[in-house]
Amino acid sequence: MQNDQLDGIDYKQSGVDIAAGEAAVKAIKDKVRSTYSPNVLSELGSFGGLYRINKTAWENPVLVSSTDGVGTKIMVAIAAGKYDTVGQDLVNHCVNDILVQGAIPQFFLDYIGVGKLEPPVIERIIDGFVQACRENDCALIGGEMAEMPGLYQERDFDLAGTIVGMVEQSEILPRQSITAGDVLIGLPSSGLHTNGYSLARKVLFERMGLRVDSYLEELGESVGEALLKVHRSYLRQLKAYLKNPALHALAHITGGGIPGNLARVLPQGLQAVIDLSEVEIPAIFQIIQKGGKVRPEIMQQSFNLGIGMIVACDRNIAQELCTDCGGSIIGWLQEADADTKVRFR
Hints:
Elements: H1 18-33, E1 61-69, H2 73-80, H3 85-99, E2 104-114, H4 119-135, E3 139-147, E4 157-168, E5 183-188, H5 197-207, E6 215-216, E7 221-222, H6 223-227, H7 235-238, E8 247-252, H8 257-262, E9 270-274, H9 283-292, H10 296-302, E10 307-313, H11 315-325, E11 328-335, E12 342-344
Helix pairs in contact: 1-4, 3-4, 5-9
């Protein structure tokens, strides 16, 4: 059988451009290096990232790690042609996930899967990683770019990230001192952060017929701008309180909303009572609820409703923490044998 049609095929003709990958890596090397601390012992392009523990800064360190993605928020970024914010989202999301255990981020690794590798797009995504890593004093020590035309459409891409942080074993959160009478403080989110986008897109784009460039008076900006607001990191606000024994627990409000995530840090016998009557719920959530006729309990399970992090603390530091971190009291803890760990008033 003749195989003339197969003669001379190279990797680029199959959809994978090695040269484009090399160009992308070359373009980002200096940017990535700007996140390094003296503890980074490897260069970008090594098979593995080397990171040295500073033994003078830690007595009994425990490594804390987390891996996550940004979900279908990527589809909004693609539609808007804006690629830098999702990189920031991913880093900040991962930072918050280990922050709730009291950990300080040390280094971050990323994964980018694409249908067609376009160096300018990759560079913008990496710009987001770099910016957020610098803001969180976290080294971006490695990653992977995979061009997979058989799996993704040409403009499609996906992101995942892994973060590693450290915490003194004696300061791991939540603390056993969490108790009835503790105050719950909500720290404001910037918007949806990185959760609930499948429901948001269904309502806004399919049911309401909006586009990413649709301007809404209630928002004071376009739908795309509202949806692509960067997931806020709470590290800088809360870092000074992590060693304070009066801070008892943190809950990052992601998928599952306030009830799903606050319940994760509450021991048996404690129930959280949440009162959002004094909280101004951002307009984007009100538009989604009204436009999709979404029931309140579904909104509570799907979105953060304007609260991105919840702090459980002793009443003695509540007002100080609210002032320092821009938070507000949204509830308290009480003794309860009920199966429902989080109750809304």
